[in-house]
Amino acid sequence: MGDAQEGKRKGKAKTDFSNWSIKESKMLLLLMVEATSRGWRDVNDMLSKAIVESKILPLMRHSFGFGWDATTKKFTAPEEVWEDYFKNEPSHQPPPLGQSSSPLPFPNTSSEVHPVSTSQKKRTRTDNEGNSSSAETNHKSVIMEKISLSIDSIAADFRGVHSLLEKREKDIEKSEMEKREKERQNCIWDAIKKTPNLDERSRYKAVALLTNKTKNEAFLKMSPEKRSN
Hints:
Elements: H1 2-14, H2 22-37, H3 49-64, E1 67-69, E2 74-76, H4 79-88, H5 118-194, H6 200-209, H7 213-221, H8 224-228
Antiparallel strand pairs: 1-2
Helix pairs in contact: 2-5
C-alpha cells in the first residue's frame, strides 16, 4: 500500500506542470533571441544566473514592480504590488488577522468560565497577529522561490538557444569562407587560361606552383605577358 501511495504522489507531481501554449513558447523564443542580440552573456558566451540577476531583473522591476535582493537572492516588491497580486489570486490570500480555527461561532457557555485578564487578551491578539504576519511572510517566500526556479529554467533555455544561434553563425561563416575560396580559385584558373603561350600541361603546372595565398595574389596582379614569362 505504501508503494501505491508513493507511486500516486509521483504521478501527481508529474502532472503539476502546465504546458505552455504555442503563443507563449513563441514569445519566450523571441525574448531569448533579443537577449542574445543585446549581448546578455558572460565571458563564456553563456546566459548565466548572474546575467539574469544583473540585466533582466532590474528591467522587471520597472515593468512589473518587482525588485531583486542580491543578498538574500529573493524578489522584493512594494505592498501595493502584493495587494494587486492577491486581488488577482484570491486563493493565495493569507488568513485575516485574528481568524480562529475553532468551528464554534460562540464560546461554550455550558462549561466552566474562567476569568481572562486584559494582559492575556492582549497577548492572544498579539500572537494571532504575529502568526498571521508569519503566514504571509512564508507565503511570499514560497512565491519568490517559485519565481526563482522559473528564472533558473529560463536561463537554461537561454543557454540552449544561444548554442543553436552560435552554431548557426559558425556554419554561415564557414559557408562564406568556402564560397570566397572557390571564387578565388576560379579567378586564378581564368587568369592562367588567359596567359599566352601556355599549353594544357603548363597550365596545370602553374596551378601546382601557386601553393599559398601570397603567390596567388601576386600572380593575379601580373600582366598576362609576365605570367607567360
